[in-house]
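Q: I have two molecules that I believe assemble together. Could you output structure tokens for the complex as a whole instead of separate predictions?
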Amino acid sequence: MTDLTPSQTVGPFLHIGLPWADGPFAVPEDTPGAITITGRVTDGDGTALSDAMIETWQAGGEPVDHRGFARCATDADGGYRIVTVLPPAQPDRNGAIEAPHIDVAVFSRGLLNHLVTRIYFAGVEENATDPVLRSIDPARRGTLIAAEVPDGYLFDIRLQGTGETVFFDV
Amino acid sequence: MDLPLFERADNVHPPVIFPDYRSNVLRAPKQPLVVLPQNLTEATAPVFGEDRIGPTDGDLTKQFPDEPIGQRIIVHGRVLESDGRPVPNTLVEIWQANAAGRYRHVVDNWPAPLDPNFSGAGRALTDTQGRYSFTTIQPGAYPWGNHDNAWRPAHIHFSVFGRAFTQRLVTQMYFPGDPLLPLDPIFNSIPDIHGRELLIARFDLSHTRPNWALAFEFDITLRGERSTPFESGADHDD
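A: Yes, here they are, computed for all two components at once.
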């Protein structure tokens, strides 16, 4: 047995400690090439989570004015919005190419451990050969691919039930 | 590419599905988690600087013109990896209830007093040895609706980043001797009794400030690097 510190839930009051005024902005909103990712977080009944928070982390690419990280608490409708740039495709440990993706951590009351998922982007050629996407049941793969919408991308997170998002053990 | 590869944390954390914690029932995924290989995104983490920390973020008793009510405590410790290596310059965020067990939050409305001089939120960066320290107020226990006459033991929420996305951790620190601990489904969701004990801070006389504040020590241990990068997950027996 190791001495690793176990996880506990964020509980219902994360808002007093975690959100930052600049949290949703991995890049400033007026950055050339900035994209907006929006979505809703819902439970097994399809009910919006108004007390959740998501964090996004992406690596690679030019680090100019780029924090790589965003965090956004959900609003009363379960909605979140972050502003970032599209990450590059990059090689994995075995030399295969991973399609552009952003790792997402989901925190909320009821979750004893944060959940991890990935955002991929619709219309990207490398999605077809991405080793992680290819390891997922094709029927569920679509839950990891953000849809193109007029002002950016849409990525809903369904914690449970119909259309349940694929979550990872990282 | 020379990326660190982090050990697994099997049987350390609570299970995904744990219905004794009622809010878990509609929120826990039903499908099994898919193992994600650790590549560049998983083996790296955001870096935050001093600009993220405000002047009173480390001392929750100094955030308002007047002092909060309650027992002053110093909560300090180290953020480490399992091989003992410190995690320097990593962001530690805390949030907690006040001395009466009430959070300064719109949805916390049980009839205990708010404290106009207590935000309940703090932030610090670890130093080169992985050390952090907060001065705060001993939080109170509070009732919640999980089951009949349910009370949360006094706790402080901790959020830690580490140096890789795989190390990201949010947890809760508890206090020694709390009679509510064995009754708490969130505490009891940790599968191993040793793991539960790791979340109980140690009373630390040596760090008290005489005539001022008691002290507790709470170390946080994150997943370390695997001893050999070629070890397969299948025969890892921790």
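A: One point stands out. The helical segments of chain A are 131-134, 138-141.
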